Automatic annotation (TrEMBL):
InterPro entries listed in its UniProt record: RNA_pol_sigma-70-like (IPR039425), RNA_pol_sigma-70_dom (IPR014284), RNA_pol_sigma70_r2 (IPR007627), RNA_pol_sigma70_r4_t2 (IPR013249), RNA_pol_sigma_r2 (IPR013325), RNA_pol_sigma_r3/r4-like (IPR013324), WH-like_DNA-bd_sf (IPR036388)
Domain RNA polymerase sigma-70 region, chain residue ranges per copy: 27-92
Protein name as it appears in the record: RNA polymerase sigma factor
Keyword set, alphabetical order: Sigma factor, Transcription, Transcription regulation
Lineage: superkingdom: Bacteria
Domain RNA polymerase sigma factor 70 region 4 type: 128-179
NCBIfam families reported in the protein's UniProt record: sigma70-ECF (TIGR02937)
Keyword Translocase listed: no
Taxonomy of the source species: Bacteria, Bacillati, Actinomycetota, Actinomycetes, Kitasatosporales
Gene3D superfamilies: 1.10.1740.10, Winged helix-like DNA-binding domain superfamily/Winged helix DNA-binding domain
Length: 198
């Protein structure tokens, strides 16, 4: 395990893509802690957080061959945040189905509406903003998600993505500019949370 732990993330992902379960275990040991912490800040249900974390690494196992280089941390966080959105949507659908069933039975309960955070996450995934984000290059998208969506400082984003703080600032400025341009093409105003320069 000692030599395995010294390998970089890119090498571990290549090994994972080739079916090396120990490489995936090393990636898990390296990244599961901070992923769990960040997921827990977005979701108060420990069971959901645990399931999303497991789904993240199952997805990483299956799709490691599609990783295009760069830092594994940002790639894993994109997977984890999407799995969390999926889990919340599933919970909402289940809640709504249960509520609808209860309404038929008792005619007094109303379907539970998604929270404001769930609506924002859904817009990020499926609205104009999500489409515009998908058009950014992966490195710009990772910086924007870390600094705007996740609310990390420049220093925290640099540590997460494994790049210098100056690079985070430069990429954040480029990402905001490109995102505003893409949103303007849709006729959608840029969110105020994008702010100015990093």
């Amino acid at each position: 395990m000692g030599a395995e732990a010294e390998r970089g993330d890119a090498a571990l992902l290549r090994a994972t893509a080739a079916g090396d379960a120990q490489a995936l275990a090393t990636l898990y040991d390296r990244h599961a802690g901070w992923l769990h912490a960040r997921l827990s800040r977005r979701c108060a249900d420990p069971e959901t957080v645990h399931e999303v974390l497991q789904d993240t690494f199952v997805t990483a196992w299956r799709s490691a061959g599609s990783h295009r280089g760069g830092e594994a941390g940002g790639w894993l966080w994109v997977i984890a945040s999407r799995r969390l959105v999926d889990a919340r949507r599933s919970q909402i659908r289940t809640s709504e189905a249960q509520a609808a069933h209860a309404m038929r039975d008792t005619d007094v309960r109303r379907a539970e509406a998604p929270s404001a955070e769930e609506r924002v996450l859904a817009a990020l995934e499926y609205g104009d903003l999500g489409t515009a984000l998908d058009r950014l290059s992966p490195e710009l998208r990772a910086v924007l998600r870390a600094t705007v969506v996740d609310g990390l400082t420049t220093r925290e984003a640099a540590q997460l993505l494994g790049i210098p703080e100056g690079t985070v600032k430069t990429r954040a400025m480029r990402a905001r500019k490109e995102l505003r341009k893409a949103l303007a093409a849709f006729g959608t105003p840029a969110p105020r949370t994008l702010g100015g320069t990093a």
